[in-house]
Amino acid sequence: MDPHPTLPHKGGGKIKGGVACAERRESDLVTGVPSTDLEHAARLVRRARRGVAFTGAGVSAESGIRTFRGQDGLWKQYDPFKTASLQHFLRDPTIYWTVSRERWHTYQQAQPNPGHHALAALEAAGHLAGVVTQNTDGLHRQAGTQHLVELHGSGRTVRCLDCGGIEPRAEVQARLGREMPPICRVCGQRRLKPMVIFFGESLPPSAIAEAFELARACDLMLVVGSTLQVYPAAEVPRVAVELGAPLVVVNDEPTPIDVEAAVVLQGRSGEILPALQAMITAGG
Ligand SMILES: [Zn+2]
């Protein structure tokens, strides 16, 4: 589990600047009516040499990790502010770790799905320069993605807020049955926090900078499984679009950026991405 955090807020300033990126062709100019053609998407991805995939909870949902927002979201079951806000956590980490104990089994069992693997293959084939993700589950890395930017941190590692000691999450989870909240093995304090961004925390500046750098230099932006509701992360694909990179959206529901896309593919990313990758591979 990993209540990842950052409060959604509408708006967010436009981010300007950056180097001119994508080679832009007349056929990609956005007309306001995106294509829904898989072959069109495959052509765009095939010619990309430094494309970027921006992924959200929808990709992990197909691996059995529940999303936070929406009808069946975790936040319907748990109060996000009590569970994963820095303010509450500092007062008492017990709530967070109690929820974590309940949910760990599912989280630990989750495996990358065909969508994760397809993105790793597109990177290996030289079409993607990397993956920028809002997810904290580490499944992209497990699937083989080399250049991964985790905007909301990683739930696989835990850090002591008192001494800075770092420990694998699995080891902390293993002792929750006898320690609640868990105790730091180094200093004995009880403020062990997963290295994810909680409500009330800023995104790591280095990850944000790296994400925008990739977006500014990209020649294709592929948004997968994100409804782009969380800022400033959602600004990352917009920067690429503003600089002229063609946009392909893969999601099971409409997103606010669809109108700016060259192609919108609605459905499950675990099915669409492998089909896209197969078409690209077949096309040479
Ligand atoms: Zn410590």
| CA radius of gyration | 19 Å
Structural class: alpha/beta
Strand order of the largest sheet: 3-2-1-7-8-9
Order of helices and strands: HEHHHHHHEHEEEHEHEHEEH
Q: What fraction of the residues are assigned to beta strands by DSSP?
A: 15-25%
Shape: elongated
Mean pLDDT: 86
Can you say what the CATH homologous superfamily of the largest domain is? TPP-binding domain
State the share of residues found in helices, binned by percent: 25-40%
Distance between the termini: 39 Å
Which parts are unreliable, with pLDDT below 50 for 5 consecutive residues or more? 1-29
**What can be said about the biggest beta sheet?**
6 strands, parallel
Bound molecules: zinc ion
CATH class wording of the largest domain? Alpha Beta
Named CATH topology of the largest domain:
Rossmann fold
